[in-house]
Specification:
By secondary structure, the chain is an alpha/beta fold. Helices cover 31% and strands 22% of the residues. A hairpin with a 5-residue loop joins strand 5 and strand 6.
């Protein structure tokens, strides 16, 4: 099993690239993937179901104190911040919104940096604000790999461009290249 943990964040325009990335993963993909996508508590999001219908890896909407297990994809529920509590568990919070969002990407990325450091692969996709930039910076400072969707392949390029402008990025990749990167890390690390 890989020592790397994958953390993905996105907002406006991120559903198509994340579906594309996850649909390329084999059923035996053995890294834990945790996802925060901005969503409104008022909207009945079916993100977990949508992702589960488009990939071969098990997709789970996180419950408070949920234990993380390899070969699963964990998705933050609408209306809750998602924290990596320790190397095995998640926690949920109703703390104030950050960057106008709950769940916020920075919350997940920052807590992941503190727990996993250089074993983080953080991916920031399309979005319309700068959420994720601070968390990517923290992961990068801890030696983790930070990736953003290329602005030209993003439906809304503000989020990845913010990370690029703030020197928070190790790699700038298209969704297809992100898929290949994850497959490479899954097979060889």
């Amino acid at each position: 099993m890989s020592d790397f943990k994958v953390f993905i964040g996105g907002s406006a325009g991120s559903i198509a690239p994340i579906t594309s990335i996850l649909s390329s993963l084999p059923a035996d993909f053995n890294m834990i993937i945790t996802i925060v996508i901005h969503s409104s508590i008022d909207s009945k999001t079916l993100l977990s179901e949508t992702l589960a219908n488009n990939c071969d890896v098990t997709v789970i909407e996180v419950s408070d104190k949920e234990k993380s297990i390899a070969n699963n994809i964990y998705v933050a529920p609408s209306g809750y911040h998602l924290y990596v509590e320790n190397s095995n568990n998640f926690s949920l919070s109703l703390d104030e919104k950050i960057n106008f969002s709950r769940p916020a990407i920075d919350v997940l990325f920052t807590s992941a940096a503190e727990i996993f450091g250089k074993h983080c692969i953080a991916i920031l996709l399309s979005g319309a604000n700068d959420d994720g930039t601070e968390g990517l910076l923290k992961i990068k400072r801890h030696g983790g790999l930070t990736v953003v969707q290329s602005p030209e392949s993003s439906q809304v390029s503000i989020m990845p461009q913010s990370a690029i402008d703030n020197d928070a990025v190790t790699k700038i990749l298209s969704p297809k290249e992100i898929s290949l990167l994850l497959l490479e890390y899954n097979d060889y690390h």
